[in-house]
Amino acid sequence: MVFPTIEILPPHSYQPLDEAICEIQSYHWIFFTSVNGVRSFLARLRHLGRDHRVIGGIKIAAIGPETAKAVESMSLQVDVIPGEYRAEAILKELDPGEMFGKRVLIPRAAEARNVLPETLRQWGATVDVVAAYQTVPARNNVPWLRGLLLERKIDVVTFTSSSTAIHFAALFEKADLVELLSHTAVACIGPVTRETVETMGIGVDVVPQDYTILGLTRAIAEYFNKLRQR
């Protein structure tokens, strides 16, 4: 049962992103933190009449294999993909000394976490964080969802990002939310999303080792297989 809690929209203004694209060859690194960030950046690049080849020579870091695939689909090389798909992990793949004096561009969601740019700045890099898109609450049939949860017709609720979890929680009062999910398994795509959900007072049952949709799917299947074997 698909119940989107966020909608992807253009940023409030494209000006910061456009200015960065016009100066793209002044950057040493581009960090992509999501597939949406890649798609929005490349779409704006084309809108401004630029070819993706202008990125040639700039190092690219991507958080996660799906994000890397989106970059590589444009015949661009990804230089760094962390083994763990979160901002903290990508920092472990970098040499702080080599980042000193470098100029870094991070096109991402307007609401994203700041651990990556803040750490890079501490290492002496100049970091431009620009909104490539924004996430807003999606319009949904909340009474329908609440009814399904009350009737225990949902076996597992999946959260694929902190944003989806936050906007899901905003649909209900906190006490009501905890009660509605008390008889339902909760699956999160990775530790950052899990931490977000747990701050809401909700237990998390499933977190895959591979922070991808496929990894999440496999982890959910394993979870229910173990339940059946008890």
What is the multimeric organization of the chains shown?
single chain
CATH fold-level topology of the largest domain: Rossmann fold
Indicate the proportion of strand residues. Answer: 15-25%
CATH class of the largest domain: Alpha Beta
- How many helical elements? 11
| Structural class category | alpha/beta
Plain-language structure description:
By secondary structure, this protein is an alpha/beta fold. The chain folds into two domains: 6-136, 3-Layer(aba) Sandwich (Rossmann fold); 142-229, 3-Layer(aba) Sandwich (Rossmann fold), CATH 3.40.50. The chain has helices spanning 15-22, 35-47, 65-72, 87-92, 96-99, 115-122, 142-150, 162-169, 174-180, 191-198, 213-229; strands at 6-9, 29-32, 59-62, 103-109, 126-137, 156-159, 185-188. The protein has a five-stranded mixed β-sheet with strand order 1-5-4-2-3. It has a two-stranded parallel ribbon with strand order 6-7. The longest helix is centred in the C-terminal third of the chain and has 17 residues, at 213-229.
How is the secondary structure organized here?
Elements: E1 6-9, H1 15-22, E2 29-32, H2 35-47, E3 59-62, H3 65-72, H4 87-92, H5 96-99, E4 103-109, H6 115-122, E5 126-137, H7 142-150, E6 156-159, H8 162-169, H9 174-180, E7 185-188, H10 191-198, H11 213-229
Parallel strand pairs: 2-3, 2-4, 4-5, 6-7
Antiparallel strand pairs: 1-5
